[in-house]
Amino acid sequence: MARRTKLSVGDPGIPVEANRLFAGLSAGEREHAIAACIRKRFSRGERVFSTGDRPEFLYLLEVGHVQLVSLEESGAERILNVFRPGDVFGEILFSVERRPFDAVAVDEVRVGIMSRATFLELLHASPLCGLNFIRLISDRLFTTERDLAALAQSWTRPRLVHLLLKLADNLGAPTPQGTLVTVPVTHETLASMIGASRVRVTSYLNQLRRDGLLSKQGRLMVIRTEKLKGWLASKGA
pLDDT at position 154, please? Predict the structure, then answer.
């Protein structure tokens, strides 16, 4: 039986036991599922899985953040998504033979790992778990469609503002000054995520800072979310 890991005081995260995938399950079903999960830690920059791996496992993120990354023919990396504690990822267990993307730890990460065989067994035994899984996938699909709509904007600046709001929602912590994005995000990363040049992203970030819509706290960004939403509304974006 996999040993359960308790979160330490001050360790921000959502343990496997509290993951939405298991919401409403009976005590027996929950215990069986949790016992089948293997806890594993990954250091910053380490790959949780890589392009070409067989999709044999489902990952439940407890602590830290994980980027889903696509490697382009030019060798450049494009960041497709950022997962936070409580997210389930690596869910394409049934549709492809090889993983098309890398999953990379942004910081110190801990995940619960469930094999495909165990997950299939759980789905057969618990229709509620299957419903929870559908809800998780539906949420992911909605987010993807919303992001695609934002990326369809012809202007780079609205795309950047939409991305900043997404980062504030996914990685943010409230402070008196605004929403602190708790993970350092480089200008190169932002440019990769919206398909723009780093130079242009830097120029727009500087303008947003001058307008009082965001600021810096060391290497971290502080985002004035309501002001940014107001800016988007004023542009009809």
Answer: 59
Domain enclosing residue 86, as ranges: 16-150
* Same domain membership, residue 160 and residue 118: no
pLDDT in tens, 78-121: 888 889 999 999 988 777 889 999 999 999 999 999 999 999 99
Q: Which residues, 6+ apart, have CB-to-CB distance to 231 below 8 Å?
A: 161, 211, 213
Nearby residues of 55 by Cβ (< 8 Å), 6 or more positions away: 90, 92, 93, 96, 97, 98, 99, 116
Q: Are residues 160 and 139 in the same domain?
A: no
pTM: 0.74
Tokens at residue 120, please?
């299939």
| Contacts made by residues 117-122, CB under 8 angstroms, sequence distance 24+ | 118/33, 118/36, 119/58, 119/93, 122/29, 122/32, 122/33, 122/36
Give residues with Cβ within 8 angstroms of 112, minimum separation 6.
Answer: 16, 19, 34, 37, 38, 39, 59, 60, 62
Task: Walk across the sheet containing 178-181 and list its strands.
Answer: 172-175, 178-181, 220-223, 214-217
38 found inside a domain: yes
Residue 3 falls inside a structural domain: no
On the question of pLDDT at 2 being above 70, the answer is no
Angstrom distance (rounded) from CA 18 to CA 135: 16
Contact between 84 and 74 under an 8 Å Cβ cutoff? The reply is no
Domain boundary residue among 98, 129, 150? Answer: 150
